[in-house]
Fold this protein.
Amino acid sequence: MQMSVGNMYNYFASKEELAKFAIKYSTNILADELRKINNLDISSKEKIYIFVKKYLENVQKSPEVIEYFLRVYLSNREVFKQGCEGFLCVGEFVTEVMILLDDGAQKKEFREQEFFPAFAMIMGCLGGFAFLSGENVLDKDILSYSDAVADNIYRALKYEE
């Protein structure tokens, strides 16, 4: 942005408004990428693999985006209690995850299940890797884990007869 944090405050009514804008901005980056993936004419398994790779690429290229979500949004919910309740500020991303899961279930590639356990499983896995990367504890480059992470997510979601 080429602008100091102090200067950014001038464009918002409060620090809370700036924080809300930042969380919407950061999650909309992920939502836009997942929307493009959801629109591809490929299997749900392939979509999971592409999404995981894109997510981990974001962690690697712009760790501040993911870390903002993990360290600020999730741990300082009181800042977001007015105007950002529930999924309000992250709604576009949550909607795209919902579409991915629903589409996979309709095609019998994913099993029918409640949204929240499936969402938490996906985001817990991805958030965990973002955290491990941010703490510099991974043995290898984060992208080298992409297929293994995607495979674990897919196996947790896949349809079984």
User: Anything to note?
Assistant: The chain has a mean pLDDT of 85. The domain at 14-157 is CATH 1.10.357.10 (Tetracycline Repressor; domain 2). The chain is about 65% helix and 0% strand.
